[in-house]
Amino acid sequence: MKESASSSPRTGSAAEVTLPDNPAVLNVDEHAPTPLSPGRTGFPKQSGQSLSYWLQQVRSDPLLDHRTTKQLPKETDTVIIGSGISGTLIAKHHLETWPEKSVLVLEAREFCSGATGRNAGHCKPDQWRHFAKFEKAYGQKQAIKIMNNEAATWRALVAYVKENHVDCDLWVGDTYDVPLDDDVAKVAKECFERYRDLGGRVEHIKVTHDPAEAVRISRIKKAKACYAWHASTLQPWKLTAHIMRENLKNGIHLQTYTLAKNVAEDSLGRRKWVVNTERGDIACDTVVYATNAYSAALERSLKGVITPKPHMCNKVVPPRALSGSKALQNSYGVLLPDGGLFSINPRCTADGVVMVGGSNPGQKQVDKWVEQHPEHCIDDGLARVDTVTECVREFVESNLEGWKEAELGPGEGFDYSWSGIIGLSADGVPFVGELPGKPGQWICAGHHGHGMARIFTAAPGLVKVMNGESWAATGLPDVYEMTPERLQRLQSATEGAPKVAIV
């Protein structure tokens, strides 16, 4: 396996994992080339956005357009921009840390209508698959810490849901990583064994290298191996809404349909900063960017450092042959020969609708189209994209027993797809900390399509450093920290340089 001699943090240098004389690749950067226009950015789309399956389920919920007061406050202690899981959790921990401080959460559109409300509903901790990639970029210690942090994030999310009896369709069980041909199985095996041999925790991972047994366990006809460990699926909007309702009860202020356009110094001397919105200005001492893919539109220093990209998710209603007692009972990451991945969430404790996300081969066509039309880099109004849906159809018909022969009646089959905007970070890991040169401005963003497996530790970690605690107190990997050196390194990186990434 290719390796870098250096173990010091730097701009990511491992775009994929390969073996000599093996055509397969593992974990390509979002199954697409590095974006050709790394400076592209934009604000959230203000009309015509598609409705994810999660948002379709809550159309009568008054939280969608909640405004705590009719008029926008002119002043507050802290402004948090973004009401997804990042902004909502940061507000929760901010309230617990400084109950005396006033907090205003701004949302450009409906509550939680960005990436959190548009993903495939997984909280799946990466427990081995990206280790080799991160080891190349950041060294063994940090790579293991990233894996451990994702496991800690999953445990924190599940504990919160159970302790607070959150109605969000939580499922806990074995998730399967399944390579689909011999070459990618060989690369996966090499990655897993290297992680194990270097001290990574693998005792909780059940590994099957016998193809026949892998097919039996996974129910994927072309499975060549199977890696199983505990993960979760859930309704992400409902989880975020539960947390925000508790925030509101405890004094957090929420203003939806309020687009933040700029942050500047307060020339009137009332506070440190002024957040300019289309409904008026808000003076404050602290600003938190929980804006993920849209961060560079507000903060110019992040252009090319956090880049938005549309990503598709498909809702599939299984036929009778895969319903009832025959329904899928596990979630999946299906590893494709060219580095792509199908992320599959069958919602087996809820309605049985199957969510198919990840980076399927049809996503490449979407990426090429966006490269040609960069104004669509923030277009979450895409729906029923045939190139993506046909790849999903081909996969399930080829790999799931009984699907190809099934006669699909009305209401069954490949019902709907929608786009969400992921925030590609230039080095593949999120940014947590204070913006360099801007005291009182903080960020938790750039989650690279993997936020659900990071935010339940990243958000409280950010609040700890806001409170003056050391980075070590957060328990987060060192490479997540936003530092002047990291930002400068990424800003000066050559356009098109290899990046570390997550799929």
TrEMBL record:
Protein name (Swiss-Prot/TrEMBL): FAD dependent oxidoreductase domain-containing protein
SUPFAM superfamilies: FAD/NAD(P)-binding domain (SSF51905)
Domain FAD dependent oxidoreductase: 77-453
GO cellular component: cytoplasm
Stretches the record annotates as Disordered: 1-47
Organism of provenance: Didymosphaeria variabile
Listed Pfam families: DAO
InterPro entries: FAD-dep_OxRdtase (IPR006076), FAD/NAD-bd_sf (IPR036188)
Polar residues: compositionally biased ranges: 1-11
Domain of life assignment: Eukaryota
